[in-house]
Amino acid sequence: MAAHKIAHATLKGPSVVKEICIGLTLGLFAGSLWKMHHWNEQRKTRAFYDMLEKGEISVVVAEE
Questions:
Q1: Which of 20, 24, 27, 34 keeps 20 to 30 A from 52, CA to CA?
Q2: 6-42: string of b/e by CB count within 10 Å (b at 16+)?
Q3: What angle do CA 7, 12, 17 make, to 5 degrees?
Q4: What's the burial of 46, exposed, middle or buried (CB within 10 Å: 0-12/13-18/19+)?
Q5: From first to last of its 64 residues, what are the pLDDT tens digits of the chain?
């Protein structure tokens, strides 16, 4: 009758600390990606206006 004593994994509820850690990690990762994207766009915009100010490029406005 030893077969009845097999240990099974018991399902528990969610661990609050684990959920907070996972959420914090995912939030920081997503925030870092967004911030890097923002810095890259800001760098491109700054480079565009620097080139415009130096006269290396010009903006032509189409008249209607």
A1: 34
A2: eeeeeeeeeeeeeeeeeeeeeeeeeeeeeeeeeeeee
A3: 130
A4: exposed
A5: 555 666 666 777 789 999 999 999 999 999 999 999 999 999 999 999 999 999 998 888 877 6
Distance CA 53, CA 47 (A): 10
pTM of the model: 0.61
- How far apart (Å, rounded) are the C-alpha atoms in residues 1 and 51? 84
Q: Are 28 and 20 in contact (CB under 8 A)?
A: no
E strands along the chain, which residues?
none
The CA distance from 45 to 47, in Å, is 5
